[in-house]
Amino acid sequence: MNAPQKTDRRALGRALSRTANASVADVLASAQGASGACRRIGVTGPPGAGKSSLIAALVRQRLARDGDIAILAIDPTSPVSGGAILGDRIRMEDLAQNARVYIRSLASRRSHDGLADNLPDMLEIIENAGFAEAILETVGVGQVEYAVRHVVDTILLVMPPGAGDQIQAMKGGILETADILVVNKADQPGAQQLASELAGVMKLRGEAPSGWAPPIVKTSIRDSASVAALAEEIDRHQAWLAERAGAKGRLEARRAQHVASLVARRVAEVLERTSPEDLRRPLAGLYESVIRHLAVFNGAA
Ligand SMILES: Nc1nc2c(ncn2[C@@H]2O[C@H](COP(=O)(O)OP(=O)(O)O)[C@@H](O)[C@H]2O)c(=O)[nH]1
Ligand SMILES: [Mg+2]
Question: Which DSSP category does 140 fall into?
């Protein structure tokens, strides 16, 4: 499939906006589910770690290859625009002008996990639009990172020097799901100390069940060799995924998770339209009524 032309980008933007607000019925009418055609990279970590700057630096290098790149930023701070994304725009100004790059911010909506509810659907649109790569930036350390796991192939956890205290708190969390640990701002003091602390934590953790040992990469946006080294680790992880006998596992898990999230959204849709009287009914009756309504896509839900 060919990448969309620059003139198609407005149509792409409209399709994404439509999907962001689509009901489950709307999604089922058009979406097919992920095909795995597009490399998906998640970049997470605390605000100010340098995620946007690093993504911009990575993309500038990765444009040397074939294929268009989409950058999606989940912005929990503002429902519309502004805030962090405004800053991101400035860091990515040159890329925003590039016909082969598509940048889009997504406000996180009512979702319990802080991700846009329709993120899997939006990523499918990006995939079908022919992008070779989609890079997803998420802010914060928490539930979002677990949700990201299901929609991307490779997760980067970006930390600034001095984040050592946070590592203790993260031990059982995001550190477990990250595929690559990035110590950014390596031009600042404390980067080596953080890298050593991380290495210690990873050693204690022992070998991951998957067999992938997350590398620890020090980067600085001022050092293009370090960004190239990070790009290489991303490629190495993607190659490792592709080579595994169970390589299909991740795509299938993604599709299963997609269906699960659609069902959860559908339940929420039905409950929204359930009257207070019905909600006071005995649990078994209420449960049965909800189940019955799930498959009935009419105005009355
Ligand atoms: N010294 C230094 N500053 C950086 C580096 N990467 C990002 N920054 C700065 O850190 C600040 C936050 O960067 P940003 O990309 O917005 O972080 P985000 O919130 O994680 O997306 C900005 O002022 C960047 O210029 C780096 O490698 N070295
Ligand atoms: Mg950012």
Answer: B
CA of 160 to the centre of ligand 1 (A): 9
Question: φ, ψ for residue 162 (rounded to 5)?
Answer: 95, 0
Residues 210, 177 share a domain = yes
Ligand with an atom nearest the CA of residue 222: 1
Q: What is the pTM of this model?
A: 0.86
3-state secondary structure (DSSP) of residue 293: helix
The closest residue, in CA terms, to atom 5 on ligand 1 is 185
Q: Would strands 154-159 and 180-183 be described as parallel, antiparallel, or unpaired? A: parallel
Residue 70: CATH number of its domain: 3.40.50.300
CA distance 142 to 153: 19
Q: Whose atoms come closest to the Cα of 91: which ligand? A: 1
pLDDT in tens, 207-255: 887 889 999 999 999 999 999 999 999 999 999 988 875 655 677 888 8
Query: Same structural domain for residues 74 and 52?
Result: yes
Kindly list the protein residues that place their beta carbon closer than 5 angstroms to ligand 2, a single-atom ion. 51-52, 88
Ligand 1 pocket: which of 43, 51, 52, 53 to mutate (most atoms <8 Å of CB)? 53
Distance, CA of 148 to CA of 257 (rounded, Å): 11
Query: Which of the ligands is closest to the CA of residue 56?
Result: 1
Q: Looking at the structure, do residues 121 and 177 belong to the same domain, yes or no?
A: yes
Both ends of the chain: CA-CA distance in Å?
Answer: 37
**Which residue segment(s) compose the domain that 286 sits in?**
254-294
> How many other C-beta atoms are found inside a 10 Å radius of the C-beta of residue 58?
24
> Tokens 């795995």 appear where?
36
At residue 104, the 3 state secondary structure works out as strand
